[in-house]
Fold each of these.
Amino acid sequence: MNIKKIVLRLFLLVLTGILTFAGINFYVKSSSNPYCFRNVESLPEVPVAVVFGAGIRNNAPSKYLKDRLDAGIRAYKAGKARKLLLSGDNGSKSYDELAVMKAYCADHGVDTLNIFVDYAGFDTYSTLYRAKHIFGVEEAILVTQNYHLDRAVFIARNLDIDAVGYAADRGGYSNLRKNKIRELFATVKSVADVMYGRKPKFLGKKVDLEGKGNFSK
């Protein structure tokens, strides 16, 4: 095979990869966007709002996480969600994201009986899979920044959760461009996760969202 044919085949392979990558991201965004909202007034009334973790610093929420928590609290106080399901990283004793999230919501007026936590929501897919299969979520508001919202809604709706997204954006964010780029690759992975039905690392006993919050556990 001559060098021109090799170069041509490599070019076509790369081009196919780029088009597939772009096509997947376009599909996820276009299919999810109609279910994403920026104003709390536009949200439907559902049993629960899922708030995704986004890091802590010095035992306080990062800017990303604070805005997500504030948005979840707004949805709760507006009567759009009766419960809050907080999902984050509690992977070690020295880093307890969920303790910070729980305390922040309680300090800002959320009844602790209405706060539920998912200690094994290590990524977006795991959070939503566990929301469906552990917490029995059928309808939900998903609370996160706009750049992450389409993927979250796409995953949820493909897991048979009647989900809408609520954009938590308030002002600028550090490393936003980097996060947006990373999100493009995560979106492609999410399609594979949905297609092949990936199971989270941890499942466990079911939790009844109609009962008292598991805040103290």
Amino acid sequence: MSRFSLSGNLRDAAFQKGADLFGIADASCFLHREYTGMRPSEIMPEIASVIIIGVSIPRGAFGTLPRGRAEYTNTLMAGTATLRILAFSLAHQVEREGYIATIVPAEESEFGYWYADPSTLNADLSLKYAAYHAGLGSFGLNHLLIHPDHGARIRITGILTDAPLEAGTPDLEGFFHSRCSTCQKCADACPAHAISRDGTIDRHACSDYMFRELGGLRCGMCIKVCPL
């Protein structure tokens, strides 16, 4: 099967099974000088592609914030569970074509702290970076992926594979969303003061707020106020 046929089949299967977004990044994007995290080739040396699938989070989960943080957190976890099932099915579909595939941990919080290096709070590899190169959106001031249709109200996971698939292309507007420089509502709304207007973020302040102040519940305020 050609890379185009397999890519199309995977895309169709993802949407049929409930995904709201699907994209493919060429794994070589992680070799760019701008990327400083772990490369997927350190996990899978023969990797060729990173498949990104995602689901949109219902708007009602954000509308209840901040009082409804338990409901918001539960809704996020439901999205993660959905993605695990979707990714597992697609990984099997890839392997039926003679390739190998493994699933990257989905982001379990706004910045993936469950699977992060405790000293840096950076995940092993950035799914958002892969999603950007797959053409699924750009980065916001809050360092979250901004999808054209769903904004930051999404949850994503990834599949690493040696299958040479048809990759997407990055957003022509650039790495950061053009509206973020003049909006900055997320910086004003952040209760942990973790988001700076210059585009930097204090991951430890965000993590401490969620795990100490909120007892492990998710915050979500930077997403709630985002107009995109």
Amino acid sequence: MAIPASLIHSLQTATGFRKEAFEAVHDSGEQVVSIRLNPSKPFDSSHLPIAGNVSWCEQGRYLFERPFFTFDPFLHAGAYYVQEASSMFLWQAIQQIVPESYGKKVLDLCAAPGGKSTLLSSYFKDGLVVANEVIKNRANTLVENCSKWGEGNLLVTNNDPSHFQAIPGFFDVLMIDAPCSGSGLFRKDPTAVEVWSEANVTLCSQRQQRILADAVPCLAENGVLIYSTCSYSQVEDESICDWLLEEMEMESIGLTLDSQWGIVETISEARKAFGYRFYPDQVKGEGFFLACFRKKKEVFSVKSKIKNLPVTSKLQIQQLQAAIQLPENLSFFDQNDAIRAIETRWMHELSILANHLYIKKAGIEIASMKGKDIVPSHELAVSAWFMGGFPSIDLDKENALAFLKRKDFSAEGQKGWNLMRFGGLPIGWAKLLPNRINNYYPAEWRILKE
């Protein structure tokens, strides 16, 4: 692979850069495959070619080779997420800088397709995680992946970063995996080399500053900012760290590394900010950069207006609770002809967010009501909240894949609504009728490949 000469030249002064080894690993054709397990959905992973653990993330696993993930029902059940190993370092970072996760409000600003959002929702299980994506079609993918992950503490929004200025000091943790020039993905995606240019690096650096300037006001005083890119370029990495300290009144936070990880700690030239570089010749992963900061600027409290959410009627709640076993301490509200739920302690925060942002997904969609009949939602099926109330049917792999393709499949069980499962994990709903089976797997999520 021919790495752009201008990139190699720019990296000569980058801490830890080793030209010959860097070029050799890109020429090798080696591919690193990794997944992150969902701690809320334990499953038998023996069918996956697991090669070992990702040292900096306790749920991370390396694979010997890349299987055809699309044809693994466990992926569609949300049992794991296919995520690049270097980016899983986010888990290590938040463990060190936010050891107390309870009650934290977290924003993943540039969230699609959802790798970091699902990781954050697993770590901040007792917090509230908002996953935002500005591009509409990418936001739809984010909704799908967050829904399959199944945590009820996840909200998905579709907003420009500037919209979050309406809620100053709202979040305790701000994750910005900024749009970048993508040089860290050259080995994984050789086509990225073709679109890389010095001009795009400069453009990305300017865009990163604009996004940060728009978003930092929504971070609380003493709140934590985690900034990352998949770029090697210093103007997108260390220079941005200096800019944050100079312009945004941030304080750099250093992390503790294990020397065996191969991660390179850098110190920015102007303001001595800590950063962490991942070179593929030194770590088992792709190119990545991450830096952590604490906000020192005082935030003046502003009383935010709330939006009154359409409350589900007591009768419908009684019907739901009689039919479906759910956790306690949930509040129910209506959205788009469906009943959704969120932990009661987050209703006030949800009302504030709903007043200022476009919310595509809040909590878990439980069901819709057709007269007296309850139509359970797919989000409920794959959520960590569903505790019973409908019979279930365990499918073999052939029938599970047919179900996920919305094709005819075989299942024997009680007439009416049944939860389809594979390997003990729910994958969706079907309704057994006397002469047919109605498949309720979401049509837009079905497997299209044969």
